[in-house]
Amino acid sequence: MHPPIIFLSGLLCDQTMWKSQQAFFSKDYSTTAFAFPEMDSLEMMAKKVIAQLQEPSIIIGHSMGARVALEVMRQAPDLVKKIALLDFGIHPVKAAEPENRYALIQSTEQHGMDYLIDHWLKPMVYENNRDHPQLFNPMKEMVLNQTLSSFKQQIHALLTRPAVEQVFRSIQIPLYLGVGRQDQWSTLEQHQQMCELNPNAQLDIYESSGHMSPVEAADQVNASLKHWLEQDE
């Protein structure tokens, strides 16, 4: 029997991000996708996941969800069989980050969640994918289904995030990194630099994809993860 696959969603995201992956892998694996609405710390998000783990599992996190995956690794390493981290970072809070994130919250308070579509979601998506309704519209609906309260709490979680570089450096189980080539938020260069911190890391690049690779490059993500998962079987 394969170990279960646990998908962890990012900021303003839910199971929508993993729809293709769950459909693809559910033939051979038990899959669960977690979202973290109304939660204001990565540590608590990780505890939510750990409470549901019945056995060592394959943890796959995207963006903020990748940071949650690393926190699961810190808190319960024996429950992580393999770990895959997509479109993410391990850096601490940068100087301008609080101001930029609070400005986005303030504008969203003034204009509603619709504001986030043009000023947060679209910049996350590769420009050539923004006009593809089958790609963009489900993500748009996903964001609009989130609440301002949840957005604020998740931002607080990111701005109070624990240091994870040492956790990342110490990973000795199979470690996969994936990134969209056109990801402007968590860049390819950033992922290449992280690979230098852990020689165990395997990096794959998704073509014609921005930050939202599980949706933008679903087929590439699925094939790449499948290949990685089968390497040491």
Automatic annotation (TrEMBL):
<keyword id="KW-0378">Hydrolase</keyword>
<dbReference type="InterPro" id="IPR000073">
    <property type="entry name" value="AB_hydrolase_1"/>
</dbReference>
<dbReference type="InterPro" id="IPR050266">
    <property type="entry name" value="AB_hydrolase_sf"/>
</dbReference>
<feature type="domain" description="AB hydrolase-1">
    <location>
        <begin position="6"/>
        <end position="223"/>
    </location>
</feature>
<dbReference type="Pfam" id="PF12697">
    <property type="entry name" value="Abhydrolase_6"/>
</dbReference>
<dbReference type="GO" id="GO:0016787">
    <property type="term" value="F:hydrolase activity"/>
</dbReference>
<protein>
    <submittedName>
        <fullName>Alpha/beta hydrolase</fullName>
    </submittedName>
</protein>
<dbReference type="InterPro" id="IPR029058">
    <property type="entry name" value="AB_hydrolase_fold"/>
</dbReference>
